[in-house]
């Protein structure tokens, strides 16, 4: 695992025992300056696609699974440039993100 990269997977196990459904993406990474080459990557974000999750359902899943997090927010909205006009329109976010960073 290259410590300068991230890996995104659909579902799996975090912290050795927490089963994450395939409808949630896990972003794995090594913390810059805090991990040794031999250290395993850790989950740094869980991504809840809005086609499967609402804010309340995602927060309930986190609480039910005793997962503590630092931040819960919608993914960044992407600006889309119109071809016929010179105005930018905002697309709604496609996912909700939670971060647990050390």
Summarize this entry quickly.
The protein has 102 residues and is mainly beta. It has one helix at residues 55-64, and strands at residues 7-14, 18-29, 42-49, 71-74, 79-81, 88-90, 95-99. It is 10% helix and 42% strand.
Describe the structure.
- The chain is globular, with a radius of gyration of 16 Å.
- The longest helix is centred in the middle third of the chain and has 10 residues, at 55-64.
- It has one helix and seven strands; from the N terminus they run βββαββββ.
- The protein has one domain (7-99).
- The protein is 10% helix and 42% strand.
- With 102 residues, it is mainly beta.
- It has one helix spanning 55-64; strands at 7-14, 18-29, 42-49, 71-74, 79-81, 88-90, 95-99.
Task: Present the secondary structure layout.
Blueprint: E1 7-14, E2 18-29, E3 42-49, H1 55-64, E4 71-74, E5 79-81, E6 88-90, E7 95-99
Antiparallel strand pairs: 1-2, 2-3, 3-7, 4-7, 5-6
Low-confidence stretches: 79-91
> How many individual helices?
1
How would you characterize the largest beta sheet? 5 strands, antiparallel
Q: Could you give the distance between the termini? A: 19 Å
The gross shape turns out to be globular
Main features:
single chain; 102 residues; mainly beta; two-stranded antiparallel sheet; 1 helix; five-stranded antiparallel sheet
């Amino acid at each position: 695992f290259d410590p300068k990269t991230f890996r995104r997977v659909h579902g799996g196990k975090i912290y050795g025992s927490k089963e994450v459904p395939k409808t949630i993406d896990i972003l794995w990474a090594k913390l810059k300056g805090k991990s040794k080459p031999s250290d395993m990557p850790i989950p740094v974000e869980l991504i809840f696609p809005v086609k499967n999750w609402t804010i309340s359902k995602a927060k309930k899943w986190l609480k039910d699974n005793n997962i503590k997090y630092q931040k819960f927010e919608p993914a960044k909205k992407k600006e889309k440039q119109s071809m016929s006009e010179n105005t930018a329109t905002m697309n709604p976010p496609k996912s909700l993100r939670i971060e647990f960073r050390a």
